[in-house]
Amino acid sequence: xxxxFDVVDYTPTYGHDLVRMWRESFERxxxxxxxxxxxxxxxxxxxxxxxxxxVLVVVSEATADVIGFMATTPExxxxxxxxxxxxxxxxxxxxxxxxxxxxxxRLRLFTFKVNKLAQRxxxxxxxxxxxxxxxxxxxxxxxxxxxxxGTATQAxxxxx
Length: 160
What we know:
There is one protein chain. The chain is of the alpha+beta class and 160 residues long. It contains 5 helices and 7 strands. A 4-stranded antiparallel beta sheet has the order 1-2-3-4, sandwiched between helices. A 3-stranded antiparallel beta sheet has the order 5-7-6. Mean pLDDT is 89; it is low at 153-160.
């Protein structure tokens, strides 16, 4: 039986659990250990992510655990993480679809080049690589992706 969950707007009461889930979901696929303290990451969440994005939190109905979150604007998905124990349950897809619905028909995001799972996930959802770069804080190559409602419709039509 698949777990049920709620999607709610972020409030600081989720901060501690969200940062712990975010940390694990970031470290495992990228293969690095985050050197920031949990307090610094929470401060970053509160001072940089929350003021500049709509932050949605996915909460387990059964346990009240944070099992995912997304920070987005109508143009950009700046953060999207699902708890490693809840991946492949449709949570990430649901969040991406919500971002698409709230977009202006185009979304951009970045992911690290070493994160092949994220690349496959975004490409399945119609995102295409539009640039490559280097994230100096993490010392990792990254990829810039873009989704466009027009491109997604054209791709579906061409596949028929």
